[in-house]
Automatic annotation (TrEMBL):
<dbReference type="Pfam" id="PF13302">
    <property type="entry name" value="Acetyltransf_3"/>
</dbReference>
<feature type="domain" description="N-acetyltransferase">
    <location>
        <begin position="13"/>
        <end position="181"/>
    </location>
</feature>
<dbReference type="InterPro" id="IPR000182">
    <property type="entry name" value="GNAT_dom"/>
</dbReference>
<dbReference type="InterPro" id="IPR016181">
    <property type="entry name" value="Acyl_CoA_acyltransferase"/>
</dbReference>
<protein>
    <submittedName>
        <fullName>RimJ/RimL family protein N-acetyltransferase</fullName>
    </submittedName>
</protein>
<dbReference type="InterPro" id="IPR051531">
    <property type="entry name" value="N-acetyltransferase"/>
</dbReference>
Amino acid sequence: MLVPDLPLRTDRLDLRLFTADDFAALHGYQSRADVTRYLYFGPNDEAASREALARKRARVALRAEGDVLNLALVLRETGAVIGDVLLIWTSVAHRQGEIGYVLHPDHAGHGYATEAAREMLRLGFDELGLHRIVGRLDARNTASARVLERLGMRREAHLRENELVKGEWTDEAVYALLAREWRAGGR
C-alpha cells in the first residue's frame, strides 16, 4: 500500500493532488488536439475535462491492484499546473506497475516530464516495492519514447496494430525498467 506524503518535491516541480481549482489548467491541455493525438481520449470539451478532473481527484493512493495515483505537475517557480503524471499498481502478485504523463506543450523540452516520471519510478520502486514498471505509448509518439529512454527504460516490445484508437489501428511500444536496474543507476 502507498499513501504518499504530498506534495512530492523534485528540483523544479511540486507533485500534488488535483483540486477543483485545477480545471482551467487541465482543460487547457486536455482540449488540445496536439496533446491528445496519441492518447485514448480527447481532445476534451469542458464536460469531458470536468469528468477527467473528478477521476484525477479520486486517484490519491495505491491501496490495491488496479489503483492509480494521479498527481498534478506544478511548476514551483510560478505555481502553474503544467501537466500530470500517474503511477498504476497493475499487479500485486507480480509487483508490477505502469507510469504515464501528459505535459502542456508550452512547457515541453525542459525535462519536466522526465523529472516527474522519475519521481513516480522512485515511488514505485522505493516506496511501493515494485519489481518492474512499464511505460506504454503509441509507437508514433517519439517525444514520449525519448522521456522513457532518458529514464533508463528499455524498449521491450513493438506491438503492430494492436489497438483501435480513435478509429485508427495503432502500434504500441512498451518500455520497462526493473527494480535492480533502478538501484544500479537506471534513474
